[in-house]
Description:
By secondary structure, the protein is of the alpha/beta class. The protein has 26 helices and 31 strands.
Amino acid sequence: MHELNTILQKTLLAEKINQYVIYSPYIARKAKAGQFVILRLGDGGERVPLTIVDHDSDAGTITLIVQTVGKSTMMLDAIQPGEIIHDVLGPLGNPSEVENFGRVAVIGGGVGAAVAFPVAKALKMAGNHVTSIVGARNKDLIILKPELEQFSDRLLITTDDGSFGLHGFVTDQLRLLIEAGEHFDYVLAIGPLFMMRAVADLTKPYGIPTTVSLNTIMVDGTGMCGGCRVQVGDTVKFTCVDGPEFDGHLVDFETVIHRNRTYNHPEDCRLDTQVAEIEIDLLEDQTPQSGKDRQIMPELPAHERIRNFQEVALGLTAEQAMIEAERCLQCRNPLCVQGCPVSVQIPQFIQLLKAGDAVAAGRLIKNDNALPRVCGRVCPQEDQCEGACILNRRGKPIAIGALERFVSDALAAAEPESPSLASQTGFRAAMIGSGPASLSCAGDLARAGVDVTVFEAFHDFGGVLRYGIPEFRLPKSIVSQEVDSLSQIGVKFVPNTLIGATFTIDELLENERYDALFIGTGAGLPNFLGIEGESLVGVYSANEFLTRVNLMKAYEYPYVDTPILNMLNKTVGVFGGGNTALDSARVALRLGAAKVYIIYRRTQQEMPGREEEIQHAIAEGVNFAYLSAPLEFLGNEEGRLTGVRLQKMELGEPDASGRQRPIPLVGSEYEISLDAAIVAIGNGSNPIIHRSTPRLDVDKRGHIVVNEDTLLTSIPGVYAGGDIVTGGATVIKAMGAGRKAAASILRQFGLAVQA
């Protein structure tokens, strides 16, 4: 038995073109023609999409063909049989449309022949008459000729230099056939973008249905980042979840070509750690004021912190923590507990702290909160436990979040205890996704003796805690420690497994024999503004921007392999008013931007972001353009962003959210110059799971429908919670949903539920 992702064979097919046979049984048993995988070669490596050329479900292998063109493929070229690829995720994307069309032409340009081969094979086996046309620069670069001959009724070859076959391009060969009166019911073109565009241009006047397979820039490959978006007709599509194959007559090739060149030049990417002189146009540096009694957590000074990704909030000192704890009234009816979505016993842990035992206080919190160090840093306490504190009636509430952080950090720093593993009950549960909802659910179940496995699509765990929240708000070492603490009580973590692709919901229940599932994948699909120019180079979704920086550490490029546009001395616009927008703006400053705007169509009063984060952004030099809505992104002839056209707004009557509705002011349009834009207006629902599970009920927005009391879905034994149910919300609310689902699962198993 081979170890997962072992390279079994490596064959040189042509100059700088290798074929790899990789042991990956879970992908091999599900793979279909047209799908792809994402590889990561090691720590610091980028995520590289590669088409599955062939697969053998019996042997558990997939075949990839790779041309050495850049750093990552050069690293892959150095790997030899017997070595292991660090991460392989798949199968991704939708399979090729395979049916009996009649007479089809399958066209592969360059290495595109490798991608074309499995589709030609599938089309031939479906009963089609297959004409395969393969092009290369010269005869030495022609690959898979015998394999294509086997599954083609006719194989025609073209070479740019005339050294083999027709002297010319694949379009020349196709044109000769069409002009000679040959009829084709369907054409599939795979290869360089210019080639596919030329094929689509050729077939369009003849009305021949033509499909192209796009290989766009990706980060995650699961629909989460939106970096792979393409314009197809009037609709924006995501290559990884809607493709990779699209109607070639509708694809906006010009935009795709420009976007694929985004990181071609090193000077366009982040190369150093300089910081520009911050320019503030709209608001001056402001420091939040505080009540005289409440202890204020020390912070890194703004002028220092914008030059690094170090944690901004430093935590209360021991003296401060004791003073703050003494302020607690120890209410008989603690409203703060009612305000906490995970029901932390707040007065009790504060009492233990007052008694001088911060470690015991941390252990008490851990009974109810699987991620106390996380919540102590990013939970919106002001709207929850602190918002319910009775001291709000005559001053400032207890700094519950700061105290939670203090005691949970004390627990983490203490001599670790041997974890007490619960007696196993024989029940098995799977968590889908490794974000806060799943981690919270996993913790409660594991402590009750349930055998828990967490499946994660990425190569690392924590979900939005890892890819969404910046290091300066939530150090990734803390996320890792919280995950490790769950591992110590028996929770198993499985990376690179996309549920809905690698396994379906039904397969987990029926084949893997899990007794219960919890879906905690988050919302996962970025929303865009839907305005002209949104596909210009330089326009990011916040998901892609933060994932590149937080998960893939693009701020260390080129020492890591994932690039990001160089923002040194540039002007950046962030669209949105939530915590994600604030995070994006503050990250852009740390990447060297000279001027950063948060552009929001309401005022600061209506912003959904935390007041603390707003004040941090102001202190660091973020400019706020309130009452402004984007109308159009502006670009140059190279397809790069140059600015945005905005319209002034005024506030009218409250809308469904309870906030005043923004109303456009006629004749108030204006423009500002931008070098980069980040769209942070929330997320929609990722379709991968419900597409593969028709009996899973979802609403019109794609959110999973659940019983509000139990979080049970339409499928017995399958529960869901967090953003995939509610839409975008907070970490702590997701954790509350995880705890509620865990209680329901325990009741399903007939086990005692923790009080």
